[in-house]
Amino acid sequence: MKRLLIALISTMLVMGSLQAQTSKSPGGKKSVSVDFTITMRELAQAAKTQNDRDIPTDKALILDGDIGTVTIHEDTDASFVVELELLNGIWVGEEQVELYRTYVICEGTQFRSLFSAQSPSRLKSGQTIIVLASYEGLGIDYDGKTPVTVVKAIDIRRLF
């Protein structure tokens, strides 16, 4: 049921804000093609194997998960950059959880209202979101050795 709800919300997000094509829409917004086959699980596998050849860089991805950490890297009048740790996972049996993690870079002043301390709609750690993003590649986590996937946000919506 949760997957059906997420798929329905994903479809509404894509249809509502973007047309699934690679052209300029009449409203001036850039439209993108979306690859619905790539999930947080595939991104985690790409990081684990350090092989991301199967992750498309020419299509957008729709990812859902809980916000882990939020790090504001730049906040000026002209630019805004935030890094989110997006977490998801599945139960393996009854006692173990397989955790999936990716970093989401939110670049542009359009994201400021989502993370400003003064904003009533501010996103916080623990909230569930859905992200329309483009794949940027593999990076290294802050421990200096763990590979992680990095995506760049196109749009974000709060689910819970």
CATH names the topology as OB fold (Dihydrolipoamide Acetyltransferase, E2P)
Helix content: 10-25%
Rounded to the nearest angstrom, the radius of gyration is: 16 Å
Strand content: 35-45%
Mind telling me which CATH architecture this is? Beta Barrel
Which descriptor suits the 3D outline? globular
Tally of helical segments: 3
CATH superfamily: Nucleic acid-binding proteins
Structural class: alpha/beta
Mean pLDDT, nearest integer? 85
Largest sheet: 5 strands, mixed, barrel
Describe the 3D structure.
The structure is a single chain. With 160 residues, the protein is an alpha/beta fold. It has a single domain, classed as Nucleic acid-binding proteins (OB fold (Dihydrolipoamide Acetyltransferase, E2P)), CATH 2.40.50.140. It is 19% helix and 42% strand. The chain is built from three helices and six strands; from the N terminus they run H-E-H-E-E-E-H-E-E. The chain has helices at 2-17, 40-49, 112-115, and strands at residues 34-35, 60-75, 80-92, 96-107, 128-140, 147-158. It has a five-stranded mixed barrel. The longest helix has 16 residues, at 2-17. It is globular and about 45 Å long. Residues 4-27 have low confidence and may be disordered.
